[in-house]
């Protein structure tokens, strides 16, 4: 596996030795004013895993052939193959009986398995190893999670239990007024006590949060919970969620214990309160995804196999609609239905099609309008001008708004990159304020951010396979590749380099389109005259890269003319609506940020690159327009 999520005790924790050296432990509070302890976190001094290949892929045909060859009975389900469990019953020696319950689910895409009876899970290789053990008469032992993960889950269970015990059923609050106000705050005035009771929703007064429990589907013990509180800014209301365990280990399909064996129709919602309301109003079986429209973890698919019809009800915005379409592919299109077409028709005309807006780069919004799925952005700039630093912040900005992001950093290692990002995230040098480190690291770990563990030259096929895997596993919608030169591969050195590059660009283009995933690809410029600014034609290689790209961004670095350290960002191609132009970037060395608050929008829109260059020559070759 060549992917690393930033999660507790893993990647981000490994940043710490870089900042202060040595191990640490901590006891962080769950949120200001909220009771409960996240407990001790252990940190290792080791570094990120060394580069390894992608997960060995297995096709569904191979899986079927293997099961037949091994005499293992199976049903062909929607997303999984179903077999009797290897981990229950009489153990080794005996062939698996077709009359046993089919509680083991093999993911058709990855070959990973989950036994819903014992919660044993593992890779396709683990499955084969366990079949082998049975042949030798040994009772298979479920592959164990690492000690670190076990400890984290145990701690989360304990913390969840403490909170759960302090939380009250909403209707047991002391006074009627408080109940009414609380329900109104969460928009659930119409939800009855019976519904709240059925779903086991409680209220934690001290944290002014609703509490949604995660019960084990096996034995109904509490595995974790989600807290939701309301934040009001003016007339805008936002719901803030926190989970135990942390988001990427929080795999609760909320409502699962209420599903009967015979239920065959389901409404799958993006959040818990929708599941409640829909169940109450339509009487249908409902489940809520643990992270809303942002992802559908494949480990949840086995629990959805029993449904013949699934209606995806993730939200009414375009992002939810796009997510629903991708989730439907995982769930099998033939049983899914989405929001009505007319609703989508209305959305097409709204602002939303322009994509996710950058919070730190308003000028980029004015030109590109936003970040959209399925596009290819090419980014270039002179050597050492700050390309990686800029793209790090540009991608972080989107990631902070829930865009699931995968980084392929082939030039600088992931620890260095994560350190740059963490500095940009915190907006300060944490080396100087170590007391703030824990808080920022905790928040950073919550981002939907993943890293490929490749370093140095890589074969494009391996990289594309890894990206494909990540899209399936983590619903990645933005991949950053830094940079193209590392994909040209040794084997291409003898052939035409331009043809090799065209091939690689074509492969990324196809990936972006096929997976409705945005790719930002950094490409070095060709050797240029230092005195001249870069243009689209300066991108290394043939014209293919700029033709295939939807957006071309150039980091202009004209130190000699415009004074020390001045950089400009030029949008030289914009397929979405054609606006091109240039705006200055203010760099702060302390926060490694290009979005310094001092920066006033001095955006200059241009009709085309030629006009842009001509204009600058008229203005004395200053490298960029200074006009407002
Ligand atoms: N605007 C800027 N002003 C001054 N220093 C900067 C600026 N942007 C980045 N830097 C610093 O310059 C160094 C190189 O930055 P970075 O690695 O992002 O450049 P790059 O263009 O990706 O390099 P390469 O061409 O080698 O891939 C880093 O130490 C970074 O902190």
Automatic annotation (TrEMBL):
Q: Record's superkingdom?
A: Eukaryota
Main location (coarse class): mitochondrion
- What Pfam families does the record tag this protein with? AAA_25
Compartments where found: Mitochondrion inner membrane; Mitochondrion matrix, Mitochondrion nucleoid
GO CC term (a single one)? mitochondrial inner membrane
Write out the ranges of the annotated region (Disordered): 26-55, 605-628
- The SF4 helicase domain extends over 350-601
Q: What are the record keywords, sorted?
A: ATP-binding, Helicase, Hydrolase, Isomerase, Lipid-binding, Membrane, Mitochondrion, Mitochondrion inner membrane, Mitochondrion nucleoid, Nucleotide-binding, Transit peptide
**Quick one: a GO biological-process term for this protein?**
mitochondrial DNA replication
Cross-referenced InterPro entries, in alphabetical order?
A: DNA_helicase_DnaB-like_C, P-loop_NTPase, TOPRIM_DnaG/twinkle, Twinkle-like
- For this protein, what reaction is catalysed? ATP + H2O = ADP + phosphate + H(+)
Give the molecular function GO annotations. 5'-3' DNA helicase activity; ATP binding; hydrolase activity; lipid binding; single-stranded DNA binding
* EC number annotated for this UniProt entry: 5.6.2.3
Q: Which PROSITE patterns match?
A: SF4_HELICASE (PS51199)
Q: How does it sit in the membrane?
A: Peripheral membrane protein
Q: What is this protein called?
A: DNA 5'-3' helicase
Q: What is the lineage of its organism?
A: Eukaryota, Metazoa, Chordata, Craniata, Vertebrata
Give me the gene this protein comes from: TWNK
């Amino acid at each position: 596996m060549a992917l690393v999520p930033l999660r507790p005790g893993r990647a981000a924790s490994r940043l710490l030795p870089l900042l202060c050296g040595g191990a640490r432990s901590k006891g962080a509070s769950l949120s200001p004013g909220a009771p409960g302890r996240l407990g001790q976190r252990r940190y290792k001094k080791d570094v990120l895993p060394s580069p390894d290949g992608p997960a060995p892929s297995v096709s569904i045909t191979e899986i079927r052939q293997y099961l037949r060859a091994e005499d293992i009975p199976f049903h062909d389900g929607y997303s999984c193959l179903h077999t009797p469990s290897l981990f229950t019953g009489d153990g080794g020696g005996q062939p698996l009986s077709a009359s046993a319950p089919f509680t083991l689910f093999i993911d058709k895409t990855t070959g990973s398995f989950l036994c819903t009876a014992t919660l044993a899970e593992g890779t396709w290789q683990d499955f084969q190893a366990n079949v082998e053990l049975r042949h030798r008469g040994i009772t298979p032992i479920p592959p164990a999670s690492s000690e670190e993960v076990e400890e984290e889950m145990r701690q989360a269970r304990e913390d969840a239990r403490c909170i759960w015990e302090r939380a009250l059923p909403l209707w047991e609050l002391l006074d009627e007024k408080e109940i009414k106000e609380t329900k109104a705050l969460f928009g659930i005035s119409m939800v009855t006590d019976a519904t709240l009771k059925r779903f086991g929703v409680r209220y934690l007064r001290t944290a002014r949060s609703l509490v949604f429990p995660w019960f084990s589907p096996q034995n109904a013990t509490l595995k974790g919970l989600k807290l939701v509180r309301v934040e009001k800014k003016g007339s805008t209301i936002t719901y803030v969620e926190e989970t135990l365990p942390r988001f990427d280990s929080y795999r609760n399909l909320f409502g699962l214990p209420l599903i009967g064996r015979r239920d065959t129709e389901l409404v799958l919602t993006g959040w818990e309160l929708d599941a409640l309301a829909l169940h109450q109003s339509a009487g249908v079986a409902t489940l809520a995804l643990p992270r809303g429209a942002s992802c559908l973890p494949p480990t949840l698919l086995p629990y959805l196999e029993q449904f013949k019809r699934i209606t995806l009800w993730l939200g009414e915005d375009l992002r939810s609609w796009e997510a629903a379409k991708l989730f439907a592919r995982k769930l099998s299109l033939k049983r899914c239905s989405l929001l009505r077409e007319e609703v989508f028709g209305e959305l097409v005309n709204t602002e939303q099609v322009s994509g996710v807006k950058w919070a730190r780069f308003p000028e980029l919004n004015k030109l590109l309008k936003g970040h959209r799925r399925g596009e290819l952005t090419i980014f270039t700039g002179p050597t050492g001008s700050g390309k990686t630093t800029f793209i790090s912040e540009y991608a972080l900005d989107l990631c902070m708004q829930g865009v699931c992001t995968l980084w392929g950093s082939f030039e600088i290692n992931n620890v260095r990159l994560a350190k740059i990002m963490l500095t940009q995230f915190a907006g300060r040098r944490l080396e100087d304020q170590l007391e703030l480190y824990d808080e920022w690291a905790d928040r950073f770990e919550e981002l939907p951010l993943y890293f490929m563990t490749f370093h140095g030259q890589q074969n494009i096929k391996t990289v594309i396979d890894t990206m494909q895997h990540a899209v399936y596993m983590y619903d990645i919608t933005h991949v950053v590749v830094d940079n193209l030169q590392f994909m040209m591969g040794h084997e291409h050195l003898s052939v035409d380099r331009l043809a090799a590059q065209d091939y690689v660009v074509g492969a990324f283009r196809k990936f972006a389109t096929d997976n409705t995933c945005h790719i930002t690809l950094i490409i070095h410029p060709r050797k240029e005259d230092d005195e001249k600014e870069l243009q689209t034609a300066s991108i290394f290689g043939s014209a293919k890269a700029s033709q295939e790209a939807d957006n071309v961004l150039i980091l202009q670095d004209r130190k000699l003319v415009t004074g020390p350290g001045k950089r400009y960002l030029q949008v030289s191609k914009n397929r979405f609506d054609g606006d091109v132009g240039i705006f200055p970037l203010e760099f702060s060395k302390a926060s490694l940020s290009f979005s310094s608050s001092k920066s006033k929008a001095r955006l200059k829109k241009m009709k085309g690159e030629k006009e842009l260059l001509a204009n600058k020559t008229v203005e004395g070759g200053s490298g960029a327009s200074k006009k407002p």
